[in-house]
Amino acid sequence: MNGERNVIKKGFLVKKLSAISSFPSFFLILITMCLTGSAQVLPTNFGDVTVGVEAITTAQIVSDRWTGYEEYRATITNRSSTKTHQVTLIGQNDEMRGVGPPFFELRRTVDVAPGGTATASLLKPSITQGGVIFEILIDGERQAEIVYINNSRAGAWVRQTINRLTVLASQKVIKSGLMSDPVTLQGLKDPAGNLDFTYLAYDFPPNEWSVNWLGYSGFDGVIVTAEELNAMPHGVQSALQSYLECGGALHVIGSWAVPDQWASRGEIINGLITYYVGFGVLTNMGSTAQNNPDKWMQVKRNWEAARVPSPIYPNLTAVNKEFEVVDRVGIPVRGLFILMIVFVIVIGPVNLIWLARRKKKIWMLWTVPMVSLVTCLAVTAFAFFSEGINAISRTESLTILDETSHRATTIGWTAFYSPFTPGSGLHFSYDTEVIPQLPFEMFWRSRRGIDWTNDQNLTSGGLTARVPAYFKLRKSETRRERLTLRETGDNAPSVVNGLGADIRQLWWADNTGKIYTATNIPAGAQGSLTPINIQVAGPANFLPSLYRTNNWLDSFDSLEKSPRVSLQANCYLAEIDASPFLKEGLRGARLRKARTLVYGIRNAG
To answer: How far is CA 148 from CA 62, 89, 116, 178, 389, in A?
Structure first.
């Protein structure tokens, strides 16, 4: 409900009001205006503490996508001059309040010093549908009053025919009239002539945009002017860069100087300057005067390709077939059935015949409990020897390690299985997008909780006993790992492994595109490179096209088997049996398998 209140802007209502003369319609508009005005919720006072929560990005309100996060920003003020207060925010879906257990719970704890003000972000995955309200704990004591979301500055959604693509458009882009230009709309129409996208007319000024890239992860594209992009603080620019590197589509309007490390990774498509950054695509239109439908058609193709491919699986067995973490999913029915048959035979006919022959039927008072106890121990032993007591995990990923900018962008899968529900849940970093891969019937049955206090802690619904959990991951961060090339006098260069894990196989392309290879290089060690009679053949857009495939795992396999189809000059591909670029999700889990492919981009020359 709260999310819908800010859909219609006041300017839109005034325009409609002037065109309506009938009293029923007039009355309806007045009601809508009241609802819109009430969307600006004031902060709530709790003694010395004031709490306000503001919606920053809410892409899923009008989207059918199952990836991305909504972001809420809490501002907490402590008016006490002597006492530090510990404030815990607990976000829940308001539809279930007073009806049943919440579908989701967001939690974050913040310590606010005397006279201080703290801000904290809480992010809600799109898989958890519904509006949000916040309960407040101050120094461990639950407060009676609820904090509602202030949606007044999150902008207004401009709805089109079919809300399939969702885009974030900045203030200056909207005020320029570009999104309503007939030329723009002509390029954005689908083959049937429909405008199957919607954009958020974003009311936040550039200096107040989110510094969390996850706040943009629910959008298929972001459109800003060069002036706004240049004026953004470093944190916001870094967040948009991470969004771009993780497969997003960023479109810049106006004259803009592209960073030097990206300049050599572009081409012109349909007259549109296009750069391939990580797994994403950056496009630049010099000015609105250069507007034409072909360019917007290309921009829309980039929006369509920006989504993480997430098929709907019929059951957990199908997900495990895609990414196996256990040999089989479900209860070992055959073994337990045989054990139960033996139990029935022993406790029934065998027990009765034995006692009858000994003429001790009264002993049934202790033989039946004894056989039952032995059977229970046997069932426990069966479960122990078939599964053990340790949780297991599996991870496969691809990392683009851009040594020119010290950026590492990772996509991949991870999965967990545990005989017991882990007490601490699953842990991921703040900058990791975690996308559960669930059967369709589990989308609405799952109760999910995330604690953002120390990291992204999936406290409930992430992993339960004997039910495997599967996730797709995306993240981008600053890293210093690298490979160091050492030239020798005999034309046989060597390489020093600075990736932090043992390299099983390495392919290296020099300045001319000639490929060298090496195997089994321990972390920190030096290995010799051997030339092979192959030249690179990778296109500039290979990595974004790999991201857009329906099956990342198959793409990883193809990349490993045919490295020349992806490598460019001054690049390398390394296969390592570890996951140094992803945080361990389940502490203490036994690693079943880990594979990381590292696509390295080195300085030219």
So the answer is: 20, 12, 22, 34, 44
Phi, psi of 378 (to 5 degrees): -65, -40
> 137 exposed, middle or buried (CB, 10 Å; 0-12, 13-18, 19+)?
middle
449 near 464, Cβ under 8 Å? no
Pair type for strands 426-428 and 280-285: unpaired
| pLDDT surpassing 80 at residue 3 | no
> Pick from 326, 330, 398, 392: which is nearest to 551 by CA?
398
Q: Strand, helix or coil at 347?
A: helix
Neighbours of 295 (CB within 10 A): 21
Alpha-carbon dihedral sign for residues 217, 221, 223, 226: positive
Nearest C-alpha neighbor of 505 from the set 495, 492, 513, 514: 495
23-32, 284-293, 298-307, 398-407: least confident range: 23-32
pLDDT of residue 493 exceeding 80: yes
* Mean predicted lDDT score pLDDT of the chain: 83
Measured distance CA(562)–CA(467) in Å, rounded: 36
DSSP reduced 3-state for 564: helix
Residue-wise pLDDT tens digits, 311-338:
778 888 889 999 999 876 655 666 667 7
Q: Mind listing the domains of the chain with CATH numbers?
A: 2-150 (2.60.40.150), 156-305 (3.40.50), 478-601 (no CATH)
Are the beta carbons of 103 and 445 closer than 8 angstroms? no
Is residue 483 within 8 Å of residue 498, measured between CB atoms?
yes
The proportion of the chain whose per-residue pLDDT surpasses 70, expressed as a percent, equals: 84
| Tens-digit pLDDT profile for residues 497-509 | 999 999 999 999 9
